[in-house]
Every structure is written in structure tokens, then in C-alpha cells.
Amino acid sequence: MEQLHIMHTNDLHSHFENFPRIQRYIADERLQDQILNQETLVFDIGDATDREHPLTEATLGQANIEWMNQIHYDAVTIGNSEGLYYDHQILEHLYDQANFPVVLANLWENNGQLPHFAQAYQMLTTRQGTKIGVIGLTASYKRTYPLVQWDVHPAADVLPSLLTKLRPQVDILILLSHLGLNQDRQLAQTYPELDLIIGAHTHHLLPQGEQQRHTWLAAAGKYGEQVGNIYLDLENHHLQTVRVKTTPVTEINSQPEDQTWILEQQRKGERLLEEQVVATLPVQYERVPAPHSSLDLTFQAMEELTNCQIALLNTGLFLTTLLAGPVTENDLHRQLPHAIHVMKTTLSGQDLWRLAMEVEKNRGFLSNFIQKGMGFRGKFFGDLVWDGLEVDPRTRQVFYQHQPLQPSQKYQIALLDHYLFIPFFPTIEIMGENEIIYPDFLRTIVSKYLQRTFGGGEKRDDKTGK
């Protein structure tokens, strides 16, 4: 009887506070497997990096790769935090120093080739000769991947041919899936050739796994709060039994030096960002609406970028105040840590009126709404504020430049792509002509505006990392 122990992580999102215990657990389990003569494999299923953490931001993910190299992963795939949070050229070189393979079958260069850092699958052979095929797939965001010059394909476009090719060659076939639980379940029902789907993306936790027909599903939640374990028993290279469990990091012993290391990663990132002085501000810009507010600075940056005279923002975006004097990339990162982009939307006057009514309808609810995901890294959504547009909620009239909106006239508005992805403003998606502006995050747009307006620093280019 051959025994195989698979450990897996997913959606770590740069939660460095859990990394020491994860690393210690995997090392201890590997040692125990050696004693028991069990084979060990370790996989990561994407979204390992997140630019919310200052060290990831400062190093454009390289600090994460350095840590992952210490884990000695047997294979990883990428998530949208890698695929969409970095410019094309940054992602091209994210894994230059990695000591593990990146399996990724559905993200291609525009010339139809896989990127140089990736391979569609990995073939592994255990000490006893069992052959294991490992495929990687990531969520196919067709709207946004082309904005960073990637050609992404749905799983159904690439998986059948890979299964036809690999299934006859292997004893065990594993999919590293950054697709989400619903799609994992669908794939398990559709493709019984898959023995195991290790999932991610929707942050789902399957503490004891889930069996769909022939295929087992596993997933370890989010943020490194759990480490996944899958135990396979094989007889003559044939899979006999599968057991799945997850181990909470709270059950893994911590060491006194852990907290020192965690704090040092935070401080190291902050120091690197503090070295990048953006501008010198003449006055303090408050986090909330005020005579001098960060909200107004951001409106000006967005409107200048998009050549619009109307803009909309929510106050929950702004986490800190910008003090008078030198402002650094660390200040902007602390204020606007979000993975959110500026978007230029064109609407008819009739549809802009409808959007304004949606804003009014949801205003009270959203003020204290705890917003999670879709790039937002704050807590409360906050108040909605227009620039260049006046709304009279009593009469339901909307004015632009003190004149009522003309129903058939076209208006251009500076928004955020976040508003397209959350469900509160359906008019944006249904009726809007939407141009999402990549690769810069909102804070980078503000940074460049401050440098042009107030001077006093050199801005790193997010396209080159320099």
C-alpha cells in the first residue's frame, strides 16, 4: 500500500501573520511523512500575493516568492491577485526567482503561446512509480485580462484536450483550480477523469472535503487561516481511499520569534515605500469631506485622467488623512490600499438620472455597510459623494452645471471599476459604455496627480517596477 500526503494553501493574500506557522507545520509534516515512509506533495492554488500588504506592494510580489521558495512547493497556479494586480511585464517576471513550477493552462500571451513562466501541466512520479498529473486553471475574467494584454480562456476551452492527453499517461489526475466552488462542482460532474480538484478563489472551506461523483474536492478557506491535507491510499498505483481535512493555524504552535518576523515584514515594506517621496502638500487633506479633503484631490486626479467633469466616490475608500508636508508612497498605500481602478463611463442623460436614483436609494444602506471583496480593502462602504452633479432627492431632479440633465445627451463620468462589480448600481453595467483604465490602481493615479500638481518626488512606474 502506497500512501501519499498532499498539503495545500490557497488565497493567502499576503497575510504574513500566518506564514511562520504555515511554514513550520509543512516542515514538521514533511518530516513525519518521511518517518512513516509517506510521499509528500505541496501545492498553492493562487492569490498568494496581495498588494494590500506594504511589503508585497514595495517589492511587487517578490517578497512573497522568496517566502514560497522556503516552502518548496511542488507546483502552484495563479489567481487574479497575480494575474490582474500587476502589469503584464511585472507578471512576466514575478516568478523569475521561483524554485517551483507554475501550472497554468488557460492564460496565454496574445500570440497564442503560454507565458514563459508557465506550463499547462506538471508530471510527477512518486518513489514507488505512481504517475501524477497536475493541471492549473485560473478564473477567466474576459472583461479585464485583455486590459493587461493577456488572452484568458474558460476552463471548458482547454480542459477536455488536456484530459484526453494526460489521463492515459497518469495514475492520479489533479486540478489546481482558482475558479471557485461552483465551477469546481460543475467540473467534477462533467469530467470524471479528474480524481481531485483542489480549489480556491471563492475562499470556501471544505474541512472534510466533498465528493462529487468520482471526484474529490478540497479547499482551505482564506488568508492562510487553514492548511489543507489530503491523504491518498494507493494499491498498485490505483487510488483506493481519499481522506481530507484542514488544520487551523490556531492549532499550530507559535514561536516567540514569529511576531518579530511578522512585524519586520510590515516595517520593511513601509520603509521601502517611505523612501518614495511623491510630493510636498501645502496643507493637510482630511480623510472625510472638508474644505481640504482627500476626496477632492482624488476627484481632481480622476477627472484629469478621464477628461470628465462628473465623478462619484464613496468615503469609505479613504482610511487615513494626508498630513501637510512630504507625502510618500507609504502614506498613499495606507490611505488607499485597494485593488481598484478608475473607470470612464458614458451614459445618456436618462440613464445617468437612473444611476443617480440608484445612488439615492442605496445611500443610507451603504453608509454603514461592511463591504468585502471586489478589490475593496477598507471596512465600511461609506457615504456616496458626487462631484459635478447635483441631486435634489425631494424632487428627484438631477442637475449638471446647474441645468437639468437632457435625456438624450451623452455624459461621461469618472467612476471606479468597483462600482461595476458590486450589485448596487446595475445601470452602470446594463447601460454604461465602460472603459476600465489599467494597470494603475486608484492610489497610483492619485500619486501621479500629486507629483504633477505639487512636485517633490519620483514615482515608481507600475509598468516596469522601477
Automatic annotation (TrEMBL):
The record's listing under CDD domains reads: MPP_UshA_N_like (cd00845)
Q: Which UniProt keywords apply?
A: Hydrolase, Nucleotide-binding, Signal
**GO MF annotations in UniProt:** 5'-nucleotidase activity; metal ion binding; nucleotide binding; UDP-sugar diphosphatase activity
**InterPro entries according to UniProt:** 5'-Nucleotdase_C (IPR008334), 5'-Nucleotdase_C_sf (IPR036907), 5'-Nucleotdase_CS (IPR006146), 5_nucleotidase/apyrase (IPR006179), Calcineurin-like_PHP (IPR004843), Metallo-depent_PP-like (IPR029052), Pesterase_YunD (IPR011240)
Give any Gene Ontology cellular component.
outer membrane-bounded periplasmic space
Q: Which residues form the 5'-Nucleotidase C-terminal domain?
A: 293-418
Q: List GO BP terms, alphabetically.
A: nucleotide catabolic process
Q: Which residues form the Calcineurin-like phosphoesterase domain?
A: 5-204
Q: Which PANTHER family match?
A: 5'-NUCLEOTIDASE-RELATED, 5-NUCLEOTIDASE FAMILY PROTEIN
The record's similarity note reads:
Belongs to the 5'-nucleotidase family.
The protein in question is named Bifunctional metallophosphatase/5'-nucleotidase
